[in-house]
Amino acid sequence: MGGAQRTIDGSKQKRLAIKVEDHPLDYLNFEGVIPPGNYGAGTVIVWNIGTYGTKDGLSKQLQNGKISLKLEGKKLRGGFTLIRTRSQNQWLLIKATDDFASKEDLTITHPDSVLKDNISSIKKSEYNHSMRDTNRYINKREDFFPE
How confident is the model at residue 43 (pLDDT cuts 50, 70, 90)? Predict the structure, then answer.
């Protein structure tokens, strides 16, 4: 990726990305509160949704520890680079200098979910419902990827 690069919001902040195991597509639009003591405990929102592309093979880039890609999301757009840190599962997300680069911190100016019926009305302290109760926050995939 050519040109100077910046962090995701154009500032000097660094954004950490953690590689996790693949999740079923059924979780694509999951939003809710996962109770303490469970994997991923806390409030979960879908902060961005969209597509990505890469010129080179993703597997080779992953192996080399540097992934260059283009995002076309509702919040994040343009060129980005993921660079692996010393830890195998931790990466830094860096925004390329392009037409979409900005000094705006989107995590502050646009903190909410991109889904229609988001969980902004859920109290963050509301951890006592079961996982079955969180199904009411799941939206259908076709709402965001129309045929």
Answer: very high
